[in-house]
Amino acid sequence: MSARTSGRAGTGFGRPLRMSRSSTTWRVLCTQVGCSTTWSSWRTLRRGRGFSRLGPGQATWPLAERGLQVVGVELGERLAVVARRKLAEFPNVEIVTAPFEVWEPASGGGFDALAFTAFHWIDPNARYAKAARLLREGGALAVVSTKHVLAPGGDAFWSEVQEDYDAVVPSEQNRPPPRPEEVADLSDEIDASSRFRTVAVRRYLWDVSYDARSYIALFDTASGHRAMPEAKREALYTRIRERMGDRKVSKTLQAILNVARRL
Questions:
Q1: pLDDT at residue 30 in the model
Q2: Fewest 10 Å CB contacts: which of 31, 34, 69, 206?
Q3: Residue 110: domain span
């Protein structure tokens, strides 16, 4: 796996940032909110939902290993079990199984930071109101979203494969991935909440390579593909295998990190 990252603050892409993918988001979060100098004093909330980053605990690890007190709120019991097992060596991590909308911390709140990778799953009427209530004044809200994009010079496969979708499952939704700059960040929505002020937006690009076998295996876990009639799904996979042959394709993912301060 190769990593390509770029930073953006305000408008326009800025100077590229070179970091490992596994901890990029959280390192930049800490740069923005100042935890690089106050690791031991932080109380941080980390949340996931469904197939979220909290599930296996990968994104929580960089926070835990630096001594932060982390409370992870996970909706699914099985994902919570995985997170507890993976993070068992950290006494500073607590994993709670509950919907974020109804969960209330025993301490009553006062967190220094709230970090989400499944913010879009939260009830829109509760997202910012509850986040603001849980944070101390001046606390940080970090929201991360990830999307498949087609970067300049990216693999043409993602445009070409639309022919296979059109042939098997025609739809107006069959289109190549958007360009990175076409994916909006949350700064307008955050600022419109009247509870937070955006202080930074960062975008990161990285590439993942797939052969036909690994690509089909990945897609076979997607709900949209699983919902297809079996005959159509197999017909689509057959066309994709024939199109790919023995070559590998490169998929570009973009993560957008929005950091805001509680007013």
A1: 56
A2: 34
A3: 2-146+178-207+254-262
Would you say 236 and 175 are in contact if contact means Cβ atoms under 8 Å apart? no
Distance CA 256, CA 124 (A): 19
Q: How many CB atoms lie within 10 A of CB 173?
A: 8
How many other CB atoms are found less than 10 A from the CB of residue 227? 8
Distance CA 42, CA 196 (A): 20
The answer to whether residue 88 sits within a structural domain is: yes
Residue 113 inside a domain? The answer is yes
Q: Is residue 232 part of a domain?
A: no
Task: Say if 117 falls within a structural domain.
Answer: yes
Which among 149, 172, 157, 187 has a CA at the least distance from the CA of 248?
157
More confident residue, 106 or 200: 200
In this predicted structure, the answer to whether residue 224 has a pLDDT above a threshold of 90 is no
Confidence category of residue 93, pLDDT binned at 50, 70, 90: confident
Query: What pLDDT, in 10s, does the model give residues 137-159?
Result: 888 888 888 899 999 999 999 99
Looking up residue 131, the CATH number of its domain turns out to be 3.40.50.150
CA angle centred on 221, ends 225 and 166, rounded to 5°: 25
Cα dihedral 158, 55, 130, 28 sign: negative
Residues in the chain: 263
pTM given for the model: 0.78
In whole angstroms, give the CA distance from residue 218 to residue 199.
Answer: 35
The domain tally of the chain equals 1
Alpha carbons 138 and 161: distance in angstroms, whole number: 47
Place of tokens 């590229």: 16
